[in-house]
Every structure is written in C-alpha cells, then in structure tokens.
Amino acid sequence: MQPNSQSDAIERLRAVERNISVAIPSSGDENQQVTLVAVSKTFAAEDIQPILKAGHRVFGENRVQEAAGKWPLLRNQYENIQLHLIGPLQTNKTAAAVEMFDCIETLDRPKLAKSISAELQKTNKVISLFIQVNTGNEPQKAGISVEGLPAFLDFCQGELSLNISGLMCIPPRMEPPEKHFKLLAALANAHDLENLSMGMSADYQQAVKCGATHVRVGSAIFGAR
Ligand SMILES: *Cc1c(COP(=O)(O)O)cnc(C)c1O
Question: What is the spatial distance between Cα 147 and Cα 135, in angstroms, rounded to a whole number?
Fold first, then answer.
C-alpha cells in the first residue's frame, strides 16, 4: 500500500463504521451492538498499522500461518487486539490457532470441537467460538449443515462443555444473501445463541439489518486483494 492510500484506508474504515450505524435502526433492535471485524488477510503488517493507529482493534484472518507471520509483532506494539479466525481450521493447527486467536468463527465438525476443547483444557485459555453453518448446503463449502446443527450444538455444549458464542455463515456467491442471513438469525434464536457473524464488504449493511452482531469486512477497508 502506498503512503497516501493508508489515509484512504482510514477513511474507508470510518465510512464502513458509519454505514453500520446507519443500518442498525432497521434491524428492529435499537440495542444491537455490531463489531466490525476488519479482515486483513493477504495484507502486510505495514498495511494494518494505520488501521491500528486509528484505534481499530478487531481483525480477522483466514489462515493460522499467515496470522503467525504478522500478528505477534503487532500485538507487541498495540494493546487489546482481538483476532478472529475466519477460515477453515485443520486439527493439526488447533494448538497454534488457540494460542493466536481470541475467537474461532469456523468451528464446524466434531473432530475439530474435540481438538479445540482438549487444547482449551490444556492451556486454560478462554476464547470465543462460533459455529459455521453451511446455510446454502454447498458441497465445497465448510460449515455444519443446517440439519446437522442441533446435534452438533448438543455435542459441543453438552458433551464438551464448550461455550458457543454464536453462529457464522458465508452465503453462496450467486444468491441474494438475505435469505441466508435470516436463516442464520432464526437458527441462533432457536438455540438461544447471542451472536451472529455475517456480512462481508458487499453486503454487511444487509447483514446488520438482519441482526448481525459481527460483520467481516476486508476489501471495503483495505482495498482490493
Ligand atoms: C475474505 C473474507 C471476508 C472479507 O471479504 P471482503 O469481501 O473482502 O469483505 C469475510 N469473511 C470470510 C470468511 C472471508 O474469508
């Protein structure tokens, strides 16, 4: 990123924040709190710096290894950083993910739940966990199926005593996202889960209107990848 595009990034961050506040009243919940997860994947530490300097603290990365290459240093420079894992997690990276992230949004299968649970017990760490739901039933996409969610949730909360904060989805690319946002909101409501991570650069305002508590916005802040 060039120096002048750094101030552009801050302006874009502020614009996204404004758009979120504008969308909140349409959700029907005036107390709705929306956390902006600034998705910094593929961007270097020097591109993230200005956003940190501007006071933003919540970021999303989709790969454990990439995050390990830039965030330990940034954490030394800035306090209270909250890092969310928003990409698929392999169980052989669970330990690294639990060490690095404050929130894992992509819990989607029993084997991973067991692995995270074991790691949390071993380290005594507390992180928040979202279950990713494959609301479009896309075979290539990660996430537990809508039908599989109740049993998986039972397993996580009952058998493993995991504290599940909410649900996350990535709607199919070619479909209007609202249907998926509403489905995810209905599922969270049915299972008494507080948080909803949904909405990206193209559709975060719609997601907020449907009740999102977390939006994951990358290119609208950092620019095209
Ligand atoms: C990359 C990514 C985003 C951000 O996408 P933008 O369109 O750049 O806002 C959000 N969520 C997930 C899971 C992603 O992988």
Answer: 10
Measured in Å, residue 111 CA sits from the centre of ligand 1 at: 25
Residue nearest to atom 11 of ligand 1 (CA): 216
For residue 200 and ligand 1, the question of a CB distance below 6 A is answered with yes
Tell me which residue has its CA closest to atom 4 in ligand 1: 218
Structure confidence by residue, pLDDT tens digits, 40-72:
999 999 999 999 999 999 999 999 999 999 999
- Helices 64-77 & 45-53, crossing angle to 10 degrees? 40
Helix or strand holding residue 72 (H, E): helix 64-77
| HSE-CB for 175 with a 13 A CA cutoff | 12
Read off the pLDDT of residues 92-134 as tens digits, 9 standing for 90 and up: 999 999 999 999 999 999 999 999 999 999 999 999 999 999 9
- Ligand 1 pocket, 117 CB below 6 A? no
> Helix (H, G, I), strand (E, B), or coil: what is residue 104?
strand
